[in-house]
Design a protein that fits this description.
Layout lengths: L4 H8 L3 H9 L6 H14 L5 H8 L4 E5 L8 H14 L3 E5 L3 H10 L4 E5 L5 H10 L3 E4 L7 E5 L1 H14 L5 E5 L5 H12 L9 E3 L4 H6 L1 H6 L4 E4 L2 H13 L9 E6 L12 E4 L2 H12 L8 E4 L2 E3 L9
Parallel strand pairs: 1-2, 1-3, 3-4, 4-5, 5-11, 6-7, 6-8, 8-9, 9-10
Antiparallel strand pairs: 10-12
């Protein structure tokens, strides 16, 4: 049976208010009483109901995280960074891995103190509801005109990565994965144009955004007669790399491969994938700090991905 605060207080011979202050460390209570209450709490198996206490006081120290990006592979590192920075502020994260509106309603029912929306934009109606609740909100991975947002400069990041491949002598680079409507394709094109190189959709290699998709894209990639490939996700890049190696092709001696996201930064195998990693640490630190900033301080910033050299790119053979 669950031990309640009133049970603990009765056993300790104090009021519920005194028992609560002894557990939280607040108020003027003798060290002897505090030790007695805490010792009894441990023996009796009493656990503080943080959510109930927060709802009663109007502050839960919980930050909600929701949006389309929460379950994406590249989000694992970012969520870990967010949890770390939140912990330094005495906050805990609650993840809602559902569609935005559904996840948001669940989080609001828990009395969160702040909200992080990942890789989705806010509608006018949702933004109005959050403003009415005076809930500090930050959007990550997308731009928002309703609240502070920290986006990823995909165009600038891909442009820098492709420029690196061009500097290594690659003049025909495949674009593997997404279509011409993506920001990554725009950065891809801009890098070529700045280098004085022509580029067309003939170098586009469409595939599913998965390791299997990259694996199956090998024949189309070889048919494009490119010396290097930029894959729009690390999963695609590793699938393509694996398929080429199984076909007897050497990476990077025969072909260079550059990925995007940075989800395999801890990989031990060779070659280690060169990639444009999501700027997880910068996104996390800026987002948590902004949640605690003055409401009037609305900030919008785009952050470049981090280029990780790896072993999968090299001079054109």
């Amino acid at each position: 049976m669950q031990v309640l605060l009133k049970d603990l207080a009765r056993a300790a011979g104090v009021s519920e208010a005194t028992a609560s202050r002894a557990l939280s460390g607040s108020g003027r209570i003798s060290s002897e009483t505090r030790k007695r209450v805490r010792s009894l709490a441990e023996k009796m198996g009493y656990h503080v109901n943080t959510l109930a206490r927060g709802l009663a006081s109007g502050k839960t120290n919980f930050i909600g995280v929701c949006g389309a990006g929460v379950l994406q592979p590249f989000m694992h590192r970012l969520l870990s960074q967010l949890a770390s920075y939140a912990d330094r502020k005495g906050q805990k994260l609650i993840f809602a891995p559902w569609p935005l509106e559904e996840g948001l309603q669940v989080l609001l029912s828990l009395g969160i103190d702040g909200l992080l929306i990942c890789w989705e934009t806010l509608s006018a109606d949702l933004a109005a509801e959050l403003r009415e609740r005076q809930l500090p909100t930050v959007v990550l991975g997308a731009h928002s005109k309703y609240c502070s947002s920290f986006n990823v400069d995909r165009i600038g990041g891909v442009k820098a990565g492709i420029s690196k491949l061009i500097s290594l002598g690659h003049r025909r680079i495949a674009f593997v994965g997404e279509n011409a409507a993506s920001d990554k394709w725009q950065g891809f094109v801009e890098a070529h144009r700045e280098a004085g190189l022509e580029v067309s959709e003939a170098v586009m290699v469409p595939c599913q955004g998965s390791t299997l998709g990259g694996y199956r894209a090998k024949d189309l990639f070889l048919a494009a007669e490119c010396s290097a490939a930029f894959a729009t996700s690390d999963e695609i890049a590793l699938g393509l790399l694996k398929s080429l190696e199984e076909d007897g092709r050497r990476i990077p001696a025969d072909y260079s491969i550059l990925g995007y996201d940075g989800i395999y930064l801890d990989q031990l195998g060779r070659p280690r994938l060169a990639t444009l990693a999501q700027p997880s640490s910068a996104l996390a630190s800026k987002a948590i700090e902004q949640l605690f900033a003055a409401p009037s301080q609305v900030v919008h910033q785009s952050i470049l991905p981090e280029f990780i050299a790896g072993d999968s790119i090299g001079m054109r053979g």
